[in-house]
Amino acid sequence: MQTSDQAVRSYLLNAIDSGAYPAGSRLPTERSLSEMLSVGRGAVRSALALLEGEGRIVRQPGSGTFVADRSDRARSLAERTSPLQVMEARLAIEPPLARLVAAHGTARDFDDMQACIDKGLTATTIDAFEHWDAAFHEAIAVATRNPVIIEAYKLVTEARSASEWGALKRRTLTEEKRTRYQKDHTEILSHLRNRDIEAAESALRGHLIAIRLALLGE
Fold it and tell me: Which of 45, 78, 153, 210 could form a disulfide with 141 if both were Cys (CB 3.0 to 4.6 A apart)?
């Protein structure tokens, strides 16, 4: 069952992703959201803080809260970042997240990770598989409940939008590797659910090393 702040976050994310609140548009006030969703204003503030940390909204004192336009930043980052640099960043950032997920991750977080795995299994295109692959790893960052880490990992996801990364994935993502990656995700999730920090960290590192080897041969 979702907590109040998770329910607010889910509502706003769905509204943003569906286009109900397009990039640059102003969100309802905290008071309006509180009344609309029948939750306390503390839950609204918590959800907004998390979304701000994820880079989905921008709060401007005296003006309101606006949906972030991430397209320009993503394009700029993708143009400046090589696949090798993406992998270096992922290996530095992701494995240590296991400790924070073990401390703060909720059952809903783990269910979200499982949903990404399930959708990856049924993906019929490389682009769809890549989307759910990235979503799984982003869900791990979200489960840390740390806005700074969530925002930092959002940059990793944006860097993966580079055309060079996509071209490498298309050349190297065989059915065998796709099965391996999904198996790795399932193993990682199992360790996180069990709060087994060392095993989760080791599984994450091994998974990323396998990706680096497949993409870059090193």
Answer: 153
Residue 63 pLDDT greater than 90, yes or no: no
User: Which residue's structure tokens are 């950032």?
Assistant: 93
Alpha helices in the chain (DSSP H): 4-18, 30-37, 41-53, 71-80, 83-93, 97-104, 107-122, 126-142, 147-159, 163-172, 175-193, 197-216
- The alpha carbon of residue 86 and the mean position of all alpha carbons in its chain are separated, in whole angstroms, by 15
Q: What is the pLDDT of residue 75?
A: 59
The pair of structure tokens assigned to 155 is 């940059």
Please indicate, yes or no, whether the overall pTM of this predicted structure exceeds 0.70. Answer: no
Alpha carbons 147 and 166: distance in angstroms, whole number: 28
Q: Which two tokens stand for residue 47?
A: 């959800």
* In the chain, where the domains are located: 4-67, 71-216
Q: Does domain 4-67 have CATH number 1.10.730.10?
A: no
Query: Residues 77, 36: contact at Cβ < 8 Å?
Result: no
Under CATH, which number does the domain 71-216 receive? 1.20.120.530
- 21: burial class by Cβ within 10 Å (0-12, 13-18, 19+)? buried
